[in-house]
Amino acid sequence: MIILIDIGNTRTKYCTVEHGERSQPQAISNESISDEFLTERFTGATKVIVASVSHNQLTDDIDHWCQHNKVVYQRVVSEAKKNKITTAYQQPAQLGIDRWLALIGAAESLPNKNILIIDAGTATTFDLLAANGQHQGGWILAGINMLVTSVLANTIHVHANDKEKEQVTFGTNTSENVHNAAWVATVGAVNMAISQSEQQGIHIDDIILTGGNSYLLSSLISQKNLVIEDLVFIGLQTYHEG
C-alpha cells in the first residue's frame, strides 16, 4: 500500500494506492496529524510520498514516523523536468509544488493537449501547458474569499455577508457588488488567459479546473471545461510509478 499526502496551508489531504488504484482522498486539519493518527491510518504502508507547500516540521514528523516504522519516505519537490513536462521557471523550486503536480496530472489526464489549468482555491492559479509538455508559465490571483476580504479589510463603509450566490450580474446591494466582482475578476482572468494563449500561438484544447471553488467557477465560464478534483494526486502518483 502506497500513501500519497498533500499538505496544504491548513489542511492535509491523503489517499492510498493499491494495485495502481487510488482511494478517494480524505482531509484532516494539519494540527490533527500525530504519530497516533499516522499509526492508525497508515500501518501496513510500504511507502509514503509527500508534497507540501511548506510545513517542514510536519513533513519531518511524517519522515520520523516512516523511519521508526520502516516505511520508505519520499518528499516530492518541483523540478526542471518530469516525464515529458518541463517547467517554464528558471528556478524550478520556486514553482509551487501543487502547481507542478497539477501540470503533471493534467498531462496524464489529457495527453498531447494544449491545456489551461486553473486551481481555484485560497489563491486562483493559472498555468498553460503546451501539447509538447512545455509549461508556458502562469498567473497567481487572489482566490475568491481573499478578493472579498481584501475589499472589506481596506474600506471602512463597505460591508458584505458570506451568503451570496456565485454570479457575475451587476449587484443591487453592496454585498452583491463585492462578491459578484470577485467572480467577475476571476472569470475575466480566465477569458484573458485564453486570449493571451492565442496571442502566444497556442490554441487551448481543454480547460481543467481543480480546487475548492472549481465547480462554482465551472458553472460561470462559458468555455468547455473539466473539473478534476484529485489532479494533484494524479501527479503525485507518477512519482511512485517512475
Helix content: 25-40%
Broad shape? globular
In DSSP terms (H or I, runs of 4 or more residues), the helix count works out at 7
Name of the CATH class of the largest domain: Alpha Beta
The count of DSSP E runs of length 2 or more, i.e. the number of strands, is 13
Q: Span from first to last CA?
A: 16 Å
Main beta-sheet strand count, sense and barrel state? 6 strands, mixed
Low-confidence segments, given as residue ranges, are: none
What is the number of domains? 2
Q: What is the structural class? A: alpha/beta
Summed over residues and divided by their number, the pLDDT gives a mean of 94
CATH homolog superfamily of the largest domain: ATPase, nucleotide binding domain
Write the layout of secondary structure elements.
Elements: E1 2-7, E2 11-18, E3 21-22, E4 26-29, H1 35-42, E5 47-52, H2 56-68, E6 72-75, E7 81-82, E8 85-86, H3 97-109, E9 115-120, E10 123-129, E11 135-142, H4 144-153, H5 174-199, E12 206-210, H6 214-220, E13 226-227, H7 231-241
Parallel strand pairs: 1-5, 5-6, 9-12, 12-13
Antiparallel strand pairs: 1-2, 2-3, 2-4, 7-8, 9-10, 10-11
Helix pairs in contact: 3-7, 4-5
